[in-house]
Amino acid sequence: MNVLLSLVLLLAPVKIEHGRFNVIKDGKRIGTEEFSVMKQGAGYVIDGKTTIGDLTISSKMEMDDKLAPTSYQASSREGTMRVRVASPISELQTVVGG
Domains of the chain: which residue ranges? Predict the structure, then answer.
């Protein structure tokens, strides 16, 4: 499925976007998710912010020109998780409470 999505995105024109979604549970809005997609060099950067109740998670994904992820980071008040995608070894780092 990911290969098919990447192929469709490569063949279709990619429009830089930003948007906002409501998170709904049992018919009630419990949060929001905002995102933006920006061209950076040959690739793209996707920034996101999800808020549910008093929890906010900020995220950032970098993709190369073929729309393959090269890095991802998600942070909340509890900590941060970072992934650097590389060949042959990728790296995962977590920081709790700092």
Answer: 15-96
